[in-house]
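Worked example 4.2. Below are the chains of a multi-component assembly; read each line carefully before continuing.
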Amino acid sequence: MSNPTASLLIIGNEILSGRTIDANLSYIARVLGTAGIRMTEARIVPDIEARIIEAVRALAASTTYVFTTGGIGPTHDDITAASIARAFDVPLVRNAEAERRLRAYYPPEKVNDARLRMADIPQGASLIDNPVSTAPGFVLRNVHVLPGVPRIMQPMLDLLVPTLTGGKPLRSRTVVCDEAEGVLADGLRQLQATHGSVEIGSYPGQRDGRPETSIVFRGTDPRAIEAAVLAFADLARQIGFAAEDQGLAPL
Amino acid sequence: MSNPTASLLIIGNEILSGRTIDANLSYIARVLGTAGIRMTEARIVPDIEARIIEAVRALAASTTYVFTTGGIGPTHDDITAASIARAFDVPLVRNAEAERRLRAYYPPEKVNDARLRMADIPQGASLIDNPVSTAPGFVLRNVHVLPGVPRIMQPMLDLLVPTLTGGKPLRSRTVVCDEAEGVLADGLRQLQATHGSVEIGSYPGQRDGRPETSIVFRGTDPRAIEAAVLAFADLARQIGFAAEDQGLAPL
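Applying the procedure described above to all two chains together yields the following structure tokens:
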């Protein structure tokens, strides 16, 4: 059976302006990969309702799970919850349990309208617990809405993932070679043709000013990965370059 | 006149698997912003022809300029040039000038079929010079195809941008406050409503375990940005928090 898929919608002007470099995609992709869920697309859109609606509808239709990051705080530029509600034609309503949690978290004099708006979520959505700063995320259909701040998002995702239906864990094995990828290319092409169940990627790099190439073998079957790596080791011996096997790792 | 827009298509399994954190979006967005071109969307897709075709067509129709990164090297997983050709229904052909450059760059014994495939580009495309490693990028219609390796991509983009029609430079000014954004939210909402030409973003953070908030004022009119910042300073005096103005910067 093929693995479930996931997409990520990153919502935020600060990523598109270049001010902030997103690191959530990498974290989410690796955690999901370990659970056997393969990330197959990501999109980054600005804080504009129509753009969020268009993107979340497209991704919800094309992947098993959608995750969103960003735009669920208390300020005017936090429009994710309202946009998701509009995307699925449901009203945005004050969630009583979310309000209770927020009122329990803030001292009474610090509760204000802006903070309580973080309890407004689409009708029918269920909450995603936030063990760091209380304000919850939510799940509506196959869309999982998370905050953009990594130290808050990460523990929320860690709690969420065990509730999802996954698949065989995705694994990768990296072999680093002291040779330019242009020299390896013909052999790699044949290797990929004969090891179809393993995704073989070639990534050029440098060490001490000399070219090196990382070959990444990725898949769900450790024995198929092992077979492809052994075939690559044969290629290395033929062409005569050194290859350092960095071992199997979760994605 | 409104600014031209740009989108970025990041092509690569290594980004979607979480193995590599993309930093090209941030660099490209900042260089374009300085030239008055606003990044309005980014997508990340795997090394699959149909997915590249679908994304590049959508982005070419919705933004003034499209940039792509990744997938133009010599190996089997480098399928960007062929995919762009298919997206616009033109043949992929060996470009004589690109071949001449590659043959001049590599010692004769290092020229091979795989490396010469880097001279195969869509018919009618023009070359983007590569001052680092020779293999060129290309422009077809409004699509600008660049490599994924940052130290090669960056100087190519720097040479390319002056050839594009830009607009008024995008600028930002950041004010950091020693207050949680939940306290600032109501005032910021009013501020945004009365300073519509300036995009006001609020980004929560921490310093020494205490909450702080970065307020980012972004736009093309330095006087409008200045006016919004002064209005925010009034707000700071009213609420009674300290605000450190980090000054105007190119985006």
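Take a moment to check your reading of the output against the notes. The mean pLDDT of chain B is 95. DSSP finds nine helices and twelve strands in chain B.
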